[in-house]
């Protein structure tokens, strides 16, 4: 069986397990056959990884990379899954996969020079496009703080320029915004 939209659209993935079979393998996670059970659970949930990775496709990271990172999240999910908590493996794995991809994207954002927080980031369940700033939880005032500081400094310099030369010197020396300091910062 081929899942349409796989990383290369040719890679066959096994169908998701039926609930009874999934429960059987989940039950074997704490036994001697845990390795085999984990392998089967991971293999049958790879389609979920691709599905979630496709939601992050417009981040500038290739689908293959997103799928690889998502697979790491799936492995972590299977390794840490606790059936006692009465949650489906797919639900738990979805969060783990998504979190792993988000962590990867945050790490890779540090390497990128410029990126707009208004850039579309992912499409949520309702089909609404979320912006990068919304996903990262960045508040608007934090983002624009640098620009506001520059504007405030310009207004302050204008106000100081209306003072006498002696007053200007006193203010600059007292508060430390000497023009030499400004040149060193740039």
Number of strands: 2
Class by SSE composition: mainly alpha
Strand line-up of the largest beta sheet: 1-2
What is the CATH architecture descriptor of the largest domain?
A: Up-down Bundle
Q: Give the proportion of residues in helices.
A: 55-70%
Largest sheet: 2 strands, antiparallel
Q: What's the arrangement of secondary structure elements?
A:
Blueprint: H1 19-27, H2 34-43, H3 46-54, H4 63-80, H5 89-111, E1 120-123, E2 129-131, H6 132-136, H7 140-143, H8 145-161, H9 165-175, H10 179-185
Antiparallel strand pairs: 1-2
Helix pairs in contact: 3-4, 3-5, 4-5
Can you describe what's shown?
This is RNA polymerase, sigma 29 subunit, SigE. One of its GO terms (biological process) is DNA-templated transcription initiation. It comes from gut metagenome. The chain is mostly helical. It has two domains: 1-112, Up-down Bundle (Four Helix Bundle (Hemerythrin (Met), subunit A)), CATH 1.20.120; 144-185, no CATH class. The chain contains ten helices and two strands, in the order αααααββααααα. It has helices spanning 19-27, 34-43, 46-54, 63-80, 89-111, 132-136, 140-143, 145-161, 165-175, 179-185; strands at 120-123, 129-131. It has a two-stranded antiparallel sheet. The termini are far apart. The relative contact order is 0.08. Residues 1-8 have low confidence and may be disordered.
